[in-house]
Design brief:
Elements lengths: L4 H24 L6 H25 L2 H31 L7 H29 L3 H19 L11 H9 L12 E4 L2 E4 L1 H25 L5 H12 L2 H8 L9 H22 L19 H31 L1
Antiparallel strand pairs: 1-2
Length: 327
């Protein structure tokens, strides 16, 4: 798939405009968004993603369109999993509810920049060394097994990573938030606010999650343009989803199982693709191994079915538990 430079540029401008609009709306008046507001923005972003995918079918072909939808849905579902940790981060740093929109927006922007670097590195490695699919596939299978057996963390407290601890120790910070400001002047000195630590926490935490999601989407498409677009559309609207779902996140009790099945399936698919295009001299004499590889269309169907079933099962289980408690 050859993407002209003007298409890359136009796509980058589109995403930049969307983020700027989001920034102006949120920055103008920090507030707790209403359900109606979240639904409107979320509908806009989902509608744009669907239109983008259908547009790809028109100018690039059906196969690339299916690859985009498979990647976007996978990234979106994995991004929802991130929201659990985002909730813990907000609680850990006592971020006021009305400031959480701004924190999420800038945290997501940082995450997007870091993901873009990660995607570029991944695409370069894959183009140079096709055997890396074996590593990606094995990594996803191990991650899936761990997620299925251990599930979500039961900790109700966020633990800062090394970078966050270092920044908090080195930089002078105020104990209190000062609106959305990152730096303020107090008693004649310029000091940082806790908002900086929150943004770094959100951005670096998402990068950790990207260690799973980026290899997963490369298992569905090897086109950097599609990988980047799917990631951006998955992150757009994540802020609104955070407020819209709210307590519903705690009711998705089987989400980890669904994500484990998806990651495991993609991991196996990656290994099969690596075998199908094998070049390792110690395996089958460096010749491709004739194994069947699931098509992108079948992969999309499996991913959608698994996520739908686990979501419905989670909500039904939660309802039964609520009825039992009320009875």
């Amino acid at each position: 798939m050859i993407i002209p430079s003007w298409i890359w540029a136009a796509t980058a401008v589109l995403f930049a405009v969307l983020f700027v609009i989001d920034l102006l709306v949120v920055g103008r008046r920090p507030h707790i968004p209403t359900t109606a507001e979240c639904v409107r923005w979320l509908s806009l972003y989902i509608g744009l993603a669907v239109a983008f995918g259908l547009g790809m079918a028109w100018w690039a072909g059906r196969e690339y369109s299916v690859q985009f939808f498979a990647g976007w849905i996978t990234e979106y579902s994995l991004s929802v999993d991130n929201l659990f940790v985002f909730l813990l981060i907000m609680a850990r740093f006592y971020v006021p509810r009305e400031l959480q929109q701004s924190a999420l927006m800038w945290g997501i922007f940082i995450a997007l920049v870091l993901r873009a670097v990660f995607i570029a590195l991944g695409a370069a490695v894959i183009a140079q060394y096709s055997w890396v699919f074996y590593f990606f596939g094995a990594f996803l299978v191990v991650t899936a097994i761990k997620l299925a057996t251990e599930g979500e963390t039961d900790d109700d407290e966020y633990r800062e990573n090394a970078l966050v601890r270092w920044v908090a120790r080195v930089l002078p910070t105020t104990p209190d938030f000062h609106g959305t400001k990152l730096r303020v002047r107090l008693e004649g000195s310029r000091v940082w606010t806790p908002m900086l630590i929150v943004l770094i926490s959100l951005g670096t935490t998402d990068l950790v999650f990207a260690l799973d999601s980026i290899p997963a989407i490369f298992g569905l498409t090897q086109e950097p343009y599609i990988v980047f677009a799917a990631n951006v559309f998955a992150l757009l609207g994540l802020r609104q989803l955070y407020f819209l779902l709210g307590d519903l996140l705690n009711r998705l009790v089987y989400l980890s199982i669904g994500l484990a099945i998806v990651l495991g399936f993609i991991g196996v698919k990656l290994v099969l693709e690596a075998l199908h295009t094998n070049t390792l001299p110690f395996l089958n004499g460096g010749e491709p191994v004739p194994v069947p590889v699931p098509s992108t269309g079948l992969s999309l169907a499996i991913i959608v079915t698994v996520l739908a079933v686990t979501t419905v099962a989670s909500l039904l289980a939660s309802r039964r538990e609520q009825n039992a408690d009320s009875g």
